[in-house]
């Protein structure tokens, strides 16, 4: 068994050399400050690497990832990242990014026991249960992806409802909340139109985004 992970360390040396060659002073310029405009809340899945997907360099994207890209009202980890991003870094955009075929969402959807994470994924099951009647109408092969999108919309709503974002909006700080989904099959990010720029937007953004998800997954009418 490899115990030293030399290959990864070698990769790192090559990467740092390449970046520095492309932009001399790249690392030293980042030493004193970071000023990212965007915060990304995504899934921990190794196939959804935040910076790469949007071609952003170190210093440009503030990232929080967990299983199934959840924003739980009492999760001090996620809330702390949102708070630092909003209050200290003053990011302009907070983007919740789900992805198709999410293993966490699939486990939750199908009541598959994973272990301790079942308790975390219970939040996805809450989303599933809230929309169960509609999900039952979706083609079974499409239900996991439909729930992935519903989950993004619900988690983006949770971001809007945090005291952090509510307080930022209250003091007229510009911060826009978004919901996106990434297609594992084609490498493309799609905007789910769960876009809120202030408290007055939240309700309509949520309803419109939900309606759009439902329209996308509606079974074609049988003539
Ligand atoms: Zn996932």
Helix content: 40-55%
Which ligands are bound? zinc ion
Strand arrangement in the largest pleated sheet: 2-1-3-4-5
CA radius of gyration? 19 Å
The span between the termini is: 60 Å
Number of helices: 10
Main beta sheet: strand number and arrangement? 5 strands, mixed
Name the beta content range.
5-15%
Structure in words:
- The longest helix has 19 residues, at 143-161.
- Helix 5 (103-109) packs across helix 6.
- The chain is globular, with a radius of gyration of 19 Å.
- It has 223 residues and is α/β, with parallel strands linked by helices.
- A hairpin with a 6-residue loop joins strand 4 (176-182) and strand 5 (189-191).
- It has ten helices and five strands.
- The site of zinc ion has 7 residues, from helix 5.
What features would you highlight for this structure?
223 residues; alpha/beta; five-stranded mixed β-sheet; 5 strands; 50% helix; globular; binds zinc ion
Indicate the topology.
Layout: H1 6-22, H2 26-31, E1 38-43, H3 50-53, E2 61-66, H4 76-88, E3 93-99, H5 103-109, H6 117-130, H7 132-135, H8 143-161, H9 163-170, E4 176-182, E5 189-191, H10 199-217
Parallel strand pairs: 1-2, 1-3, 3-4
Antiparallel strand pairs: 4-5
Please summarize what this structure is.
The chain has 223 residues and is an alpha/beta fold.
């Amino acid at each position: 068994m490899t115990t030293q992970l030399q290959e990864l360390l070698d990769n790192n040396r090559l990467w740092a050399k390449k970046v520095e060659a492309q932009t001399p002073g790249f690392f030293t310029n980042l030493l004193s400050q970071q000023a990212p405009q965007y915060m990304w809340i995504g899934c921990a899945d190794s196939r959804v690497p935040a910076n790469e997907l949007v071609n952003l360099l170190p210093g440009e994207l503030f990232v929080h990832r967990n299983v199934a890209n959840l924003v739980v009202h009492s999760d001090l980890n996620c809330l702390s990242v949102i708070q630092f991003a909003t209050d200290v870094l003053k990011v302009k955009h907070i983007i919740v990014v789900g992805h198709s075929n999410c293993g966490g969402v699939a486990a939750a959807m199908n009541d598959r026991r994973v272990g301790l994470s079942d308790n975390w994924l219970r939040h996805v099951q809450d989303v599933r249960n809230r929309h169960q009647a509609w999900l039952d109408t979706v083609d079974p092969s499409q239900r996991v992806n439909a729930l992935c999108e519903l989950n993004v919309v619900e988690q983006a709503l949770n971001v809007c409802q945090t005291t952090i974002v509510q307080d930022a909006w209250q003091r007229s700080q510009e911060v826009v909340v978004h919901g996106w989904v990434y297609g594992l099959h084609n490498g493309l990010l799609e905007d789910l139109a769960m876009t809120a720029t202030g408290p007055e937007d939240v309700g309509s953004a949520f309803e419109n985004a939900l309606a759009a998800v439902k329209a996308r997954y509606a079974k074609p009418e049988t003539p």
